[in-house]
Amino acid sequence: MNYLKRCLCVAFFSVAAVVNLNAAEVEQKKPNILIIMADDMGYSDIGCYGGEIATPNIDKLADEGIRFRNFYNDAKCGPSRAALLTGQYSHKGRLRVGATFAEVLRPLGYRTLMAGKWHQTPMPTDHGFDRYYGLVDGCCNFWNPGIEARPGEGKPGRKKQMGDRARKWGIEDKLIEGGYVPEDKGFYTTDAFTDYAVDRLEEYKDEDKPFVLYLAYTTPHYPMHAWPEDIAKYRDTYKGGWDQLRQTRYQRMLEMGIIDETFKLSPRNENVKAWASLSKEEQEEEAYIMAVYAAMIDRMDQGIGKVMAKLKEIGKDENTMVIFLSDNGACSEPPNSTPDILPGPVESYRAVGRSWANASNTPFRLFKATNHEGGIRGPMIVRWPGVTKPGSFTDYVGHLIDFVSTFMEITGATYPSEIRGRTLLKPDGISFLPVLKGQEMAQRPFLCWKYSTAKAVRSGDWKLVKLRSEDVPLELYNLAEDPTELNDLADQYPEKVSQMTKQWEQWNVSGK
To answer: Domain check: are 434 and 487 in the same one?
Structure first.
């Protein structure tokens, strides 16, 4: 081979090596994605949003990432999960018209994993997830999701409305409809979901492909079940009552910069008694109930710590975008199938109740299943080393529908137009990647909500909202001046009410 040919050969292979190296670098830059979702957790429950519950691992995510002050969900468990999974407004038909982020990312080589609450149909493994373990249904007994008691143990407390129906459970692609009764009496759903997530990270630690892991806890959704040692940490924490707790959290949120002086603390809910009006015995019981609720969140945080430790152990924590959020506001629903059994053990089935939920949603009004801020605004944290500025905040108005679009921009993925004969709609969300990078980003024209006959639309700083009752009027708020929705301006601005009503109606029709 002469000198010229040798030079050309060297040049060719050098260029090829550079091209391959660049391709490898691009591939390596695709981040792993870990999405952690709490269930029915209020805006101010965790430490980094003003709460007193010990959540050091979630707080660390906030310290190393960005906190959203204006992040919205879809008010209820099922709709919120559909919006997160598909990037579609949930009233459009959920998974029937949308691809999940697993189906979007898997063609790019992502390993797709899920543990926890699905609350859609049919199964995660039918919608792009390689592996799955968890509750297919809406809620279950944390100690024993089945109907039958284990030997030497009491019958598991259950929701009365369920009758003889069992909660559905899933293990990989197998749907268990007759009731899942774990043999291990030390089984606890929060721990089981954590363990499955950690085990899958260990199993695939040597894979070159990136992963997306969706860890959907059922904490702190009712029933109130927790380990005795976790409850003991909070046994005396709530003896001051919910009125004191709301004031304490409110002041802490101001000091932390979660809210500012425009956020006036909403009055105690009209259906909640003053703490001082309760008897000593009632106060003791209520303080215990909230201690169990806090213990549930504490245990979830412990689980998150284990997952993050595993990521670090396998050397993947620096290239993983970690997201933490809640599916809706705290829950005022009253399931109480075992009034004579305090919450905690397998035989009990109790809810935290409206009074403590009002405190969990500090400083906002109302609860889960409403489109007021207490139902749809939740904590949201993104920790992505090298991208998010540690300890930062954003006032960008985001929504669950934005995740799929954000993942697509980050990875270069495309949204399919059809899957298995189903024609799909394009995602409704907007990528908030610029926000994660600390850049300014224009707000979208509007956001809309629909749950049953409840409705809401937010356009800029204005919000029009209506409760589910047909007899109640529309309410109008200026969220820039009144973010806790205390001053209804509907009578003062009838033209604004009419304009935003039409906006919502056009949106609603377009989704059918």
So the answer is: no
Question: Same domain for 395 and 328?
Answer: yes
Provide the token pair at 297: 């969140």
Q: Is 351 in the same domain as 500?
A: no
What residues pair up with 7 in beta bridges, in sequence order?
Answer: none
Question: Identity (one letter) of the amino acid at 339?
Answer: P
Instruction: Say yes or no: 319 and 384 in one domain.
Output: yes
Domain termination residue (choose one: 444, 461, 480): 444
The closest alpha carbon to 213, from 134, 322, 314, belongs to 322
Tokens encoding 117: 């609450």
In a shared domain, residues 417 and 270: yes
Preceding peptide of 31 cis, ω within 30°: no
Strand (E) or helix (H) holding 5 = helix 3-29
The domain that contains 142 carries what CATH number?
A: 3.40.720.10
The torsion region of residue 489 among left (phi > 0), alpha (psi -120 to 50) and beta comes to alpha
Last residue of one domain, picked from the residues 429, 444, 459: 444
3-state secondary structure of 187: coil
Question: What would the pLDDT profile of 294-349 be if each residue is shown by its tens digit?
Answer: 999 999 999 999 999 999 999 999 999 999 999 999 999 999 999 999 999 999 99
Residue 3 has pLDDT above 50, yes or no: no
Residue 494's domain comprises 445-512
| Count: domains in the chain | 3
Q: How far apart are CA 382 and CA 386, in angstroms?
A: 12
Three-class SS of 26-54: HHHHCCEEEEEEECCCCCCCEHHHCCCEC
| 3 and 45 both lie in a single domain | no
Measured distance CA(168)–CA(156) in Å, rounded? 15
Q: Over the range 27-51, which residues count as b (16 or more CB within 10 Å of their CB) and which as e? A: eeebbbbbbbbbbbbbbbbbbbbbb
CA separation for the pair 28, 307 (Å, rounded): 21
Residue 16, pLDDT score: 40
Say if CB 253 and CB 44 are below 8 A apart. yes
- Cα of 360 vs its chain's centroid, Å: 15
Q: Which residues are catalytic?
A: 77, 119
Instruction: Judge if 25 and 46 occupy the same domain.
Output: no
User: Among all chains, which residue has been given the structure tokens 């629903």?
Assistant: 333
Q: What is the pLDDT of residues 484-499, one digit of tens each?
A: 999 999 999 999 999 9
227 and 139 in a common domain: yes
Q: How far apart (Å, rounded) are the C-alpha atoms in residues 325 and 17?
A: 42
Q: Which two tokens stand for residue 31?
A: 């981040």
